[in-house]
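Look over this one:
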Amino acid sequence: MAEWRWECITDDLLDGLPSDALGAVSQLGKELAVRESMVFLDGPAFTGDPPGLRTIQRGPLMVVYLTDVRGERVVLIQVNWIG
């Protein structure tokens, strides 16, 4: 299995979020990376059209993200915490 990871588009994306939110973002990021690694098995050899911008919501957390298939990563673009 590939070493998929998640990361934020900018270093300050998560600044100011409470610890509950940071934990939820970390958990969701890990889950997305695992899921995408199972969906896109080719990783760097992928030749199709990558998925576009997607949104996922879990409780008070909403994340907008992109999947960089060839880079084997999930990139968080926007994080909203309503809590």
In short: The two ends are 36 Å apart (CA to CA).
